[in-house]
């Protein structure tokens, strides 16, 4: 969640659609106002409706008026990736109550990584050897900003973090620090295992073997950015994704959100009738390039963390997907470097 009181205190946000074979609800309102008054729920493709309802089931009892009427406006932000390879997605097991419980139990502690939450059934870099899930990363950025009173530059430290839900990619494209890990694996194994957990005898020219999955990225920062700057920040997730091997193929839903916690924007602000200028805390930081670089780096690292924290899983129909063999990666990296 952007903050505990997301309902009454909105934050600035922007998004970027790298490829649109996916869903992130509520983004039309971001285009209009740049304001986010919702928790960010990331689930599977068939659970978007349940998650949407879950946000309302949390908010309605808390924020209906004394007459029991909901006289307010709210557009939940729900994003999804497809886990139908490993889970029985058609069972519609995810219910609104799971969202309510998640919001109630949310904390400011570190994100859980690995086979957890919406990422539990996902695959990353698409093939049989890589289980993909949820990952995160963060940076502290030392920079400069303009002091509003003195108009001089002063040092400041910003925080920036990224959360990813990975379900994208093809095995042959996977890289770590520029090293073509999978191509080196293929040299050892002598063959490629096709993406999305398919067996090696599947014709890669058939439509079913072309699905590239999806990735949802959420970037949060304490830097005082306005919505247009946050749109620009969200675009930098593409750089981090490309470093790891994502190319935004036709069937991929690659949608990125960036938000700033610096400004609290009241749902019902007091009307200013005194003629005084409203106080705004956001400023254009001199060091925005450092934020762009940090966004790319954290997205790249969050994907690595998702892969490294994933665990072997047996899913629908007994399909087994192995976790990334980290010892094998270490040996290949040492040999290559």
Which labels suit this protein?
337 residues; six-stranded mixed β-sheet; two-stranded parallel sheet; 8 helices; 10 strands
Can you describe this structure?
The chain has 337 residues and is of the alpha+beta class. 27% of the residues lie in helices and 24% in strands. The protein is built from eight helices and ten strands. It has helices spanning 27-33, 48-63, 96-105, 181-189, 227-235, 237-244, 288-309, 326-336; strands spanning 9-20, 35-36, 40-44, 77-81, 134-146, 153-168, 213-221, 253-266, 313-314, 320-321. The strands form three sheets. It has a six-stranded mixed β-sheet with strand order 2-1-8-7-6-5. Strands 3-4 form a two-stranded parallel ribbon. It has a two-stranded antiparallel ribbon with strand order 9-10. Strand 5 (134-146) and strand 6 form a beta hairpin. Helix 6 crosses helix 7 (288-309).
| Shape descriptor | globular
Helical element count?
8
Class by helix and strand content? alpha+beta
Q: Would you report the number of β strands? A: 10
Mean pLDDT: 88
Brief summary of the model shown:
The chain has helices at 27-33, 48-63, 96-105, 181-189, 227-235, 237-244, 288-309, 326-336; strands at residues 9-20, 35-36, 40-44, 77-81, 134-146, 153-168, 213-221, 253-266, 313-314, 320-321. It is an alpha+beta fold.
Reconstruct the topology from this structure.
Blueprint: E1 9-20, H1 27-33, E2 35-36, E3 40-44, H2 48-63, E4 77-81, H3 96-105, E5 134-146, E6 153-168, H4 181-189, E7 213-221, H5 227-235, H6 237-244, E8 253-266, H7 288-309, E9 313-314, E10 320-321, H8 326-336
Helix pairs in contact: 2-3, 6-7
């Amino acid at each position: 969640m952007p903050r505990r009181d997301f309902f009454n205190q909105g934050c600035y946000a922007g998004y970027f659609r790298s490829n649109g074979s996916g869903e992130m609800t509520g983004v039309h309102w971001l285009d209009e106002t740049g304001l986010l008054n919702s928790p960010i729920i990331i689930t599977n493709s068939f659970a978007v409706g349940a998650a949407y309802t879950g946000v309302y089931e949390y908010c309605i009892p808390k924020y209906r008026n004394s007459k029991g009427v909901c006289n307010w406006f709210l557009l939940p932000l729900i994003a999804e990736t497809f886990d139908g390879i490993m889970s029985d997605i058609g069972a519609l097991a995810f219910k609104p109550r799971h969202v309510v419980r998640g919001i109630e139990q949310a904390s400011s502690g570190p994100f859980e990584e690995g086979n957890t939450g919406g990422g539990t059934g996902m695959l990353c870099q698409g093939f049989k050897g890589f289980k993909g899930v949820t990952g995160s990363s963060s940076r502290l950025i030392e920079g400069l900003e303009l002091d509003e009173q003195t108009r001089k530059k002063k040092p400041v430290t910003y925080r920036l973090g990224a959360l990813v839900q990975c379900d994208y990619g093809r095995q042959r494209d996977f890289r770590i620090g520029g090293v073509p890990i999978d191509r080196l694996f293929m040299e050892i194994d002598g063959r490629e295992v096709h993406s999305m957990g398919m067996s090696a005898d599947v014709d890669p020219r058939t439509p079913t073997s072309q699905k590239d999955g999806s990735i949802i990225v959420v970037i949060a920062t304490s830097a005082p950015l306005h919505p247009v700057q946050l749109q620009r920040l969200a675009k930098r997730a593409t750089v981090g994704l490309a470093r790891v091997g994502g190319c935004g193929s036709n069937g991929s839903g690659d949608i990125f959100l960036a938000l700033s916690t610096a400004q609290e924007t009241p749902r019902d602000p007091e009307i200013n009738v005194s003629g005084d200028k409203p106080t705004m805390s956001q400023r254009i930081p001199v060091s925005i390039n450092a934020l762009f670089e940090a966004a790319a780096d954290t997205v790249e690292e969050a994907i690595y963390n998702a892969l490294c924290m994933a665990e072997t899983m047996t899913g629908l129909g007994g399909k087994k997907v192995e976790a990334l063999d980290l010892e094998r990666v270490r040996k290949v990296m040492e040999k290559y470097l």
